[in-house]
């Protein structure tokens, strides 16, 4: 089981808080919208990932549990 971040691009307002809290997994594009690294969140960063999810003001960020990584993503 692995944990992956996802963002709902319809809901996201581009506040950028998530990228500040988890910069090694979330970067921002030129307009301030997040680019999510689809790789699994390592165990030692899960608490920070949950914190980023909790602090998203519009609840656009999710932490998803997966038994296998998304297509094209190495474990
Ligand atoms: S904190 Fe939420 S609204 Fe802001 S960029 Fe991240 S996902 Fe989007």
Number of strands: 4
Rg result? 12 Å
Biggest β-sheet: strands ordered side by side in the sheet: 1-4
How much of the residues is beta strand, in percent? 15-25%
Helix content: 10-25%
Number of domains: 1
How would you classify the quaternary structure? Answer: single chain
Distance linking N and C termini: 10 Å
Estimate the global geometry from the Cα principal axes. globular
- Could you say which structural class the secondary elements and strand pairing correspond to? alpha+beta
Please state the average pLDDT score: 91
Q: Can you identify the CATH class?
A: Alpha Beta
Give, in order, the helices and strands: EHEEHE
Largest sheet: 2 strands, antiparallel
| Name given to the CATH architecture | 2-Layer Sandwich
What's this model, at a glance?
The protein is an alpha+beta fold and about 80 residues long.
Describe this structure in words.
- The strands form two sheets. Strands 1-4 form a two-stranded antiparallel ribbon.
- A hairpin with a 5-residue loop joins strand 2 (26-28) and strand 3.
- It has 75 residues and is α+β, with helices and mostly antiparallel strands.
- It has two helices and four strands; from the N terminus they run E-H-E-E-H-E.
- It has one domain (2-66): Alpha-Beta Plaits, CATH 3.30.70.
- It starts with a strand and ends in a 9-residue tail after the last strand.
- The structure holds iron/sulfur cluster (SF4).
Any chance you could write out the topology, listing elements then pairs?
Layout: E1 2-7, H1 17-21, E2 26-28, E3 34-36, H2 46-55, E4 61-66
Bound molecules: iron/sulfur cluster.
Iron/sulfur cluster is lined by residues 7, 12-18, 34, 56, 58, 60-61.
């Amino acid at each position: 089981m692995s944990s992956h971040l996802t963002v709902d691009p319809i809901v996201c307002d581009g506040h950028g808080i998530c990228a500040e809290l988890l910069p090694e997994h979330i970067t921002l594009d030129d307009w301030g919208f997040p680019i999510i690294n689809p790789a699994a969140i390592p165990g030692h960063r899960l608490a920070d990932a949950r914190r980023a999810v909790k602090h998203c003001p519009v609840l656009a960020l999710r932490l998803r549990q997966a038994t296998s990584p998304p297509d094209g993503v190495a474990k």
